[in-house]
Design goal:
Layout lengths: L16 H22 L1 E2 L1 H5 L1 H10 L6 E4 L6 H9 L34 H14 L6 E6 L6 H13 L4 E6 L5 H15 L4 H14 L4 H19 L2 H7 L3 E7 L3 H13 L4 E6 L7 H4 L8 E2 L17 E2 H15 L3 E5 L8 H7 L4 E3 L4 H13 L3 E7 H4 L3 H9 L6 E5 L16 H6 L4 E4 L4 H13 L3 E5 L4 E2 L15 E3 L9 E5 L2 H14 L5 E5 L2 E3 L3 H10 L3 E8 L4 H11 L6 E6 L9 H7 L4 H13 L3
Parallel strand pairs: 2-3, 3-4, 4-6, 5-6, 9-10, 9-11, 11-12, 12-14, 13-14, 17-18, 17-20, 20-21
Antiparallel strand pairs: 1-7, 8-15, 13-19, 16-18
Helix pairs in contact: 3-11, 5-6, 8-9, 13-14, 13-19, 15-17, 20-24
Length: 628
């Protein structure tokens, strides 16, 4: 079967098991071949092939709603719903999204990108169905990592209370529960897996309670025995039963016959059900299947035969790598430094810190809020925590940053990774909101280095400074070398003057990666007789009021160039200050507009937003002509 010819998943219902297994092999081959060219989430999708096929085979979508938690593991779902021919455009500008996208297909019922929202969304769909007196099924597919997040337990608590028909599929690729259950569980599960089981239990209860005098006591005793067996032998499964979900599993997630059996059982339930499905992450591709630390979770283009990643071969390293190297160097002398990550040890490169200082490293799982409060308590006890969180995930911890860390003035350093435009992961992952989020919080220092030396000094200064410090850095690469560590003056900017003595006729303020582009812009404008001195606003908060007062006094044109949303940006704070102090010349703030930014390569998105070098040069040139 040619996958590009698939229009909808109805054909799966008529296939025999041999045909299904052949199709699953074809899908895996298709995924490997395509993702090796485009990049994307490989391991999770290779592991969920049979499960996704079985869901579509046993349910009637789009009437029945499937919500994939995060959505990064929905590639097979996309293939089965007629989008295989678009995979060449995966994660590209105006191409196929790497997540579920409602505008792409009627089969995509919800959108995510961040973890652990599927259960809340599924319950919302189920309760809305009940209110409208409809009869469709709602299925939430969630991974064993995501289900550890607190939001899931809020949802589970409500699901158990609501008692409405809802199917939760726990896609477990760690096999952490099956080791605990053994032969006795298999025996119990055979009994529990029959359609007659729950009816039998109800009939038994009814019969026993009718026995005069002792009936209800016999029933209570039998129920006690049953609950004791659950506690002893079901462990995690018992937790879900306590929440009010009927638990079935473990289930072989690569066996179509077994999946059919349990999915049909779940359809026949009138109450919420949890199917615990065991899958193998990376199944079908040796390098991904043998990966133990997540290197093959999200990948760029790679060579299928060798498993080697493709791309620009230079001596640059990622900002994450550089920050971690400096962290290790500083922690060598400062034994109070510890590192905390919410499930991003590999992406943030903190796995290198873990190898060096295993006793000073904590991975809390997908739990940003917990990570921040944990760090604050460590700080109160005298430790110096470094918490690495992607900019897009930092949003989840806003309350903790404000109420716990900042209000208590905790000595915590937050490494804001993936700040700015991240590219292919699109609107759910762009790191454009952290400055606006943090800028309105008291007791916080926000730093943004533009090169390796500045990053080294900022990290060193952060650990020497009392209170909450955030250092933001992008997904891009920089040149790295070991260096000495020097203290910086908090809240100071740098005027980067021309090498030759030139009287400037304006200022261009920037920070981080954009500062390097700002320096290029300055040189090209010089040819056009526009002389802008560049200011490195390396401290977004607090601002350098000494330099700002100078700008007011000189009253020359001021341009601000930054990679964040406009509302709450440094530029908006500068504008407010200048206006209040009587500045009355040209002022322009070049930032990301007030909208969600779509996927595409970073340079493509920057150009699309007219934030590329040429666009800025043209705009400044046009503005400066008005001054003459």
């Amino acid at each position: 079967m040619k996958l590009e010819d698939i229009k909808n998943p109805k054909f799966l219902k008529d296939m025999d098991y041999q045909g299904l297994n052949e199709l699953s092999a074809d899908i895996r081959k298709f995924l490997i071949e395509n993702i090796s060219k485009t990049g994307g989430h490989l391991s999770s999708n290779l592991g969920i092939v049979e499960l996704t096929m079985a869901i579509h085979r046993n349910f009637n979508c789009p009437k029945d709603k499937i919500i994939f938690d995060v959505g990064h593991q929905a590639y097979v779902h996309k293939i089965l719903t007629g989008r295989a021919k678009e995979f060449k455009t995966l994660r590209k500008l105006n191409g196929l999204s790497g997540f579920q996208k409602m505008s792409e297909s009627v089969y995509d019922n919800y959108e995510a990108g961040h973890s652990s929202t599927s259960l809340s969304a599924a319950l919302g769909f189920a309760l809305a169905r009940d209110m409208k007196k409809e009869d469709n099924n709602v299925i939430a597919v969630i991974g064993d990592g995501s289900i550890g997040n607190g939001l899931c337990y809020e949802a589970l608590n409500h699901i158990g209370a609501a008692k409405t028909k809802l199917i939760v599929i726990l896609n477990d690729n760690e096999m952490s529960i099956s080791e605990n259950v053994g032969a006795l569980h298999n025996t119990l599960d055979k009994i529990r897996s029959t359609k007659k089981y729950h009816k039998t239990m109800q009939d038994t209860k009814s019969t026993l309670q009718k026995i005069p005098g002792i009936g209800k006591y016999v029933y209570r005793f039998m129920k006690y025995i049953k609950e004791s067996f659950k506690k002893l032998y079901m462990k995690e499964g018992y937790l879900f039963e306590e929440f009010g979900l009927n638990y079935y599993g473990p289930i072989n997630g690569h066996d179509f016959k077994e999946l059919d059996k349990y999915l049909q059982m779940a359809k026949n339930e009138s109450q919420p059900v949890l199917l615990h499905v065991i899958t193998k992450k990376g199944k079908g591709y040796k390098y991904a299947q043998e990966d133990k630390i997540g290197l093959w979770h999200g990948v760029g283009p790679f060579d299928i035969k060798t498993g080697k990643m493709l791309g620009n071969l230079d001596d640059k390293i990622s900002w994450s790598d550089a920050i971690t190297k400096h962290l290790i160097n500083i922690a060598k002398k400062d034994k109070k430094i510890i590192a905390i990550t919410p499930a991003m040890a590999n992406g943030s490169k903190l796995n290198c810190f873990k190898e060096k200082y295993p006793d000073r490293f904590i991975d809390v799982g997908i739990a940003e809020e917990h990570a921040l409060v944990l760090a604050n308590a460590f700080a109160i006890e005298g430790a110096k925590p470094f918490v690495s969180i992607y900019s897009t995930f930092l949003q989840r911890g806003y309350d903790e940053i404000q109420q716990d860390l900042a209000r208590m003035n905790g000595n915590v350093v937050i490494g804001i990774d993936r700040a700015g435009i991240v590219g292919e992961d699109g609107e759910t992952h762009q790191g454009l909101f952290d400055v606006a989020i943090l800028n309105n919080i008291p007791n916080i220092i926000i730093m943004a280095p533009h090169n390796n030396k500045e990053a080294a000094n900022m990290l060193y200064t952060a650990f020497k400074t009392k209170g909450l410090v955030a250092i933001r850095y992008s997904k891009d690469k920089i040149s790295y070398e070991d260096t000495t560590y020097e203290l910086q003056s908090i809240g100071t900017w740098q005027i980067i003057e021309y090498p030759e003595k030139i009287t400037n006729n304006g200022y261009l303020i920037s920070y981080g990666d954009f500062l390097n582009t700002a320096l290029e812009i300055r040189e090209e404008l010089k040819v056009k007789n526009i002389y802008l001195e560049v200011i490195n606003a390396r401290y977004i908060k607090p601002m350098d009021t000494k330099i700002l007062k100078m700008l007011v006094k000189q009253n020359k044109p001021v341009f601000v160039y930054e990679e964040v949303v406009s509302t709450g940006s440094l530029g908006s704070e500068i504008a407010k200050y200048l206006l209040e102090q009587g500045f009355n010349n040209i002022y322009e703030n070049y930032t990301v507009p007030d909208e969600f930014i779509k996927q595409g390569k970073r340079n493509e998105i920057i150009k699309l937003l007219h934030l590329d070098k040429n666009s800025i040069i043209k705009n400044i040139e046009k503005k400066m002509k008005k001054c003459k």
